[in-house]
Design goal:
single chain; alpha/beta; Rossmann fold; 2 domains; six-stranded mixed beta sheet; five-stranded parallel beta sheet; 13 strands; 38% helix; 14% strand; globular
Length: 440
């Protein structure tokens, strides 16, 4: 049997039988129709990169498989088949990136190459594809991609500044949102039974610590227990701007000698390179509308289910107000933080589709905070707050009102995302949107 036919038969067995179209698919469609010959889809393991790419190719080279990796290593040029091809986990053989670049220079067709990766280069200049290979980020499934609710409010419409009508109803309530937090947005994980899902999430963390992290470092982790404690402390800091020193202290509670910053800094760098950490950067407007803005990032993991798993929290514990096993000072409940993380995941996916950036706002003294700032390329913004409640009162929109006074026309719209049943505009113009009704 010819070698390429064998590859295609394998492709038929690994392609999803019930593929769920993702928000990213629309971005990929636009890029290919615009002439992009090579697109690299990056993101944490298990977010669905390969499944999405497999829908678009005739041939796939899965480089995590040793046999395939050896085959391609012996002859990297075999990935140029003439048809659309996937190079999965390309970072295992960086030479494939260079082969793709040369093929593009030779006139590759639009959509001919899809590359996926769950580890970014710590030295991105080594294999730059600038001007040739377009890179896009894939995150876990949003609520609407999971089939939780039918969106009636579009983030892209909010970004127009035309103050679109806000309406829609949902029967999704608090318990279902909590279930979605622990169920995960990783497609294969969320489809498993409860017990298997919990085991898979624990196994996900085990793989990061025991395999992926050492692969990035180029050597074995000397103290994997310390790395696990640090990751657990980071999870406890979800949706806060807690300093890394405080995270280190929480991870080493009771120990007299704290590890040096040079010991813990690689934790952060490598876990970000693996897309396991997904912090939201501080919003720092170049036109300097507001003085004294803080620059610390807000902490989030790739999926809030990982945070809940690391702290051993299920639906019952979260609904009862359990704060987890590692104490990090915060305003509000840990469940509120996880709900914010769930909303943040969706907003970032929708913002990317709309070619907008996402940050958070906090003044130095913490007098004012806005959970999410979605910024257009003209620096005008939509401000988003989250609230773990079905209702919104005047106290809940204090910071949004303050921001409206500060920014005037540069604030396109202001939204509170809730666990409630109805989407509507308040008399003051601020939109109230249940999380299940927010879409791209």
């Amino acid at each position: 049997m010819p070698e390429m036919v064998a590859f295609n038969l394998v492709l038929d067995t690994i392609r999803a039988t019930d593929y769920q179209r993702r928000t990213l698919d629309g971005e990929l469609d636009e890029m290919v129709s615009g002439g992009a010959a090579a697109i690299a889809i990056e993101g944490a393991k298990a977010v669905g990169k390969s499944a999405t790419a497999l829908e678009r190719v005739d041939t796939a080279f899965l480089l995590e498989e040793p046999v395939t990796r050896q085959l391609v290593e012996a002859d990297p040029g075999r990935i140029v088949t003439g048809g659309p091809v996937l190079i999965d986990e390309w970072h295992h053989l960086p030479a494939t990136w260079d082969v793709v670049r040369r093929a593009i220079d030779a006139g590759a067709a639009p959509g001919q190459f899809l590359l996926t990766g769950s580890a970014s280069a710590l030295n991105p200049g080594t294999h730059s594809g600038a001007g040739r290979i377009v890179t896009v980020r894939m995150r876990p499934m949003t609520l609407c991609e999971r089939g939780v609710g039918t969106p009636s409010v579009s983030l892209a419409a909010l970004l127009t500044g035309e103050r679109p009508p806000i309406n829609g109803d949902t029967d999704v309530g608090l318990e279902q949102y909590v279930d979605e937090i622990v169920r995960s947005g990783f497609p294969a994980v969320r489809a498993a039974s409860d017990r298997l899902r919990r085991a898979q999430l624990r196994g996900y963390v085990d793989r990061v610590i025991d395999r992926d992290f050492p692969d990035m470092m180029g050597r074995r982790v000397r103290n994997s227990a310390a790395l696990r404690r640090w990751l657990r402390a980071y999870a406890a800091a979800t949706a806060t701007v807690t300093s890394y020193e405080r995270i280190r202290d929480a991870a080493t509670s009771g120990e007299g000698d704290k590890p040096a910053k040079t010991t813990t800094q690689p934790y952060r760098d490598i876990l970000e390179a693996l897309y396991v950490l997904d912090p939201v950067a501080a919003w720092l407007p170049t036109n300097n509308h507001i003085n004294e803005l803080a620059s610390a990032p807000k902490h989030h993991l790739a999926d809030p289910a990982l945070a809940a798993s690391l702290l051993g929290l299920g639906v019952g514990a979260l609904l009862q107000g359990d704060q987890g096993s590692v104490s990090i000072p915060r305003d509000g409940t840990f469940l509120g933080a996880l709900f914010e993380s769930l909303v943040t995941l969706s907003v970032r996916v929708f913002a990317q589709a709309a070619e907008a950036a996402v940050g958070h706002l906090r003044t130095h003294r913490g007098d004012h905070e806005i959970d999410l700032i979605v910024e257009r390329d003209d620096r005008k913004i939509v401000a988003v707050e989250t609230k773990l409640s079905a209702t919104v009162d005047d106290d809940d929109i204090t910071h949004l009102r303050w921001l409206r006074e500060e920014l005037r026309d540069d604030l396109l719209d202001a939204v509170v995302v809730t666990t409630g049943p109805h989407a509507y505009r308040r008399p003051d113009g601020i939109a109230v949107v249940p999380a299940a009704l927010l879409g791209p």
